[in-house]
Amino acid sequence: PIVFVGVSDPVGSGFVANATTVKLNGVDIPIRQVLDPNLMFFYVPPGATTGYVTVTTAAGSATSTSVLTVK
Fold first, then answer.
1. pLDDT tens digits for 15-31?
2. 18-71 pLDDT per residue, tens
3. pTM of structure
4. CB atoms < 10 A from the CB of 6, how many?
5. Which of 1, 17, 45, 59 could bond to 34 as cystine, CB 3.0-4.6 Å?
């Protein structure tokens, strides 16, 4: 599955291709595409577990205030 994170989400904005990382429940996950500084898509890989999303950019890191549920 692919998930998108946008500016309305609590993990922020300022996303930059090749300079943004995403972790789900503390595990690195691949970014599919950064569309602009406020919107990106990422894959939730097989075996991923429900947890918080942390996005890191050059400006710092932010973690979601609610969990992303993986089914």
1. 666 667 889 988 898 88
2. 667 889 988 898 887 887 777 778 888 888 889 988 888 777 888 888 888 888
3. 0.72
4. 14
5. 17
Q: Let me know: does 37 contact 14? Beta carbons within 8 Å.
A: yes
Query: What is the spatial distance between Cα 31 and Cα 57, in angstroms, rounded to a whole number?
Result: 13
Please give the C-alpha separations between residue 33 and each of 45, 62, 66, 71, in angstroms, as whole numbers: 15, 19, 23, 22
Region of residue 3 (phi > 0: left; psi between -120 and 50: alpha; otherwise: beta): beta
Residue 17, amino acid: A
d(CA 50, CA 39): 21
Q: Which residues contact 3 (CB under 8 A, 6 or more apart)?
A: 41, 42, 43, 44, 68
